[in-house]
Design a protein that fits this description.
The protein is an all-alpha fold. It is built from five helices and no strands. Helices cover 72% and strands 0% of the residues. Helix 2 runs antiparallel to helix 3, helix 2 runs parallel beside helix 4 and helix 2 runs antiparallel to helix 5. The mean pLDDT is 78.
Length: 139
């Protein structure tokens, strides 16, 4: 069967799609390499004091994989204790908010079973650093 002009057009379209997908895949791989090369954001710069807000964060971080029925009351406790923190002027509330942001990101990624494990591991590493940093400075 001889090829007609429409067959050549279809072959050209298929070849273009193949090249496009190769280029797109390489670009995605490059972005993932750049993302994995980044480290997790820095933990707080100022040593946190032993405040009720940090204790509530530690409790919340320990419940990071728990169900919403356990996690949500602990989150509400933290949100009520944060404005009452006596060290607000020292930037501790901003530090707690930053750690809480990564905790929420982790929970969101965990709940959706996100296939992007690199960002989830960055969030987990940051949360663990927040808790370790807080516990080290308490001693």
């Amino acid at each position: 069967m001889p090829l007609r002009p429409r067959h050549y057009v279809l072959l050209a379209i298929i070849l273009c799609l193949f090249v496009f997908n190769i280029i797109r895949h390489r670009r995605y791989e490059r972005q993932m390499q750049l993302l994995s090369a980044r480290s997790a954001p820095q933990v707080p710069h100022t040593p946190p004091q032993n405040t009720p807000a940090w204790a509530a964060f530690d409790q919340l971080a320990s419940l990071r994989d728990a169900s919403s029925s356990e996690y949500d009351p602990a989150l509400k406790d933290l949100q009520t204790l944060m404005p009452l923190d006596p060290d607000q002027g020292n930037g501790h509330i901003e530090d707690i908010k930053g750690c809480l942001t990564w905790l929420e990101y982790y929970r969101h990624g965990h709940a959706l079973n996100n296939p992007d494990t690199q960002m989830k591991s960055l969030a987990l590493r940051h949360i663990e650093d927040c808790v370790k940093y807080h516990q080290v400075t308490q001693e």
